[in-house]
Amino acid sequence: MAKKWTKITILAATAALALTGCANGGTSDGGETGAEGGTIALIMSHMTNEFTTTVASAAEAKGEELGYEVTVFDSNQDASTQVSQIEQAVSQGFDGILVEPVSTDGVVPGLIAANDANVPIATIVQKASQQDLAAAYIGGNEVEAGKLQMEQAIEAIGGEGDIAILYGPMGSDAQLARKEGYDAVLAENPNVNVVFDQTANWVTAEALELTENWLSTGTAFTAVVAQNDGMAVGAVQAIENAGKTGEIQVFGIDATADGVAAINAGGLAGTVSQDTAGIGELGVETMVQLINGEDVEDEVLTQAEWITKDNVDSLGGE
């Protein structure tokens, strides 16, 4: 179903313009800049790994191309901070808001605030629990990405064996959706046993430490399935440090530059590409359509592709 956003001009309270919190050099009066087309707030759940910074950079570049100023906010994985940033963007007069939810439930008050002010708001990368409050979702099909990754991992280990799973922040949309994909595939593969599954919060260092802890227990496993490339790289490092490269395969999602480098180096067996930069670009393109009162689809999805050393060159500059 396509949605259209009918914009009504509103006046923000003068006192609200004093609010601050923009990241990456953004100004506190983002709605009053001289951008030719308008202003868009991009509120990311965090800016601590290559995936989120790539999405943000691509969005900023696409905004400049289209004559819109994109200001990036960093929610630092805090749901209450994120809601405050959405409210701030509304009060500052941004023409539209893209938000990557820290929490599927926690972002809902922010969506309501934007709707009440008649400011178009869409989710990007991750969905909200009440997604109907957003004008659109822009990103990958995370359930299908999880399925593709787990299918490829199980095929690589011969259809049986013990594996470990590194999750993103528990309760986040991507963590839940990718796990849903995992569970569907695992249900069809009873000879695969999950011996460890914990969160490393998308963070390379946390994944390295956690994988080292798993290795130290003496419990054998033949694969690590990580919900993003950042954590996959951490697992690769831990396995290399333990002298077990080649014995334990690692699989990621996102096809970041670090992930691609790990594939080329032989440490990462494969990753799912969902066109990271494309998500940022599509997010801005979709928001511009909403700002202009055009119809958009409820879901604007990028395509998932399995990447290994055999086809990694097809990514080009991704």
UniProtKB/TrEMBL annotation:
Gene Ontology cellular component terms for the protein in this record: cell envelope
Domain Periplasmic binding protein: 40-294
Protein name in UniProt: Sugar ABC transporter substrate-binding protein
CDD domains linked to this entry: PBP1_ABC_sugar_binding-like (cd01536)
Family of the protein in this entry: Belongs to the bacterial solute-binding protein 2 family.
InterPro entries (UniProt xref): Peripla_BP_I, SBP_2_dom
Signal sequence, start to end: 1-23
GO terms, molecular function: carbohydrate binding
Transmembrane stretches, start-end: none
Principal location class: other
Subcellular location: Cell envelope
Highest classification ranks of the organism: Bacteria, Bacillati, Actinomycetota, Actinomycetes, Micrococcales
Pfam families the record matches: Peripla_BP_4 (PF13407)
Keywords per UniProt: Signal
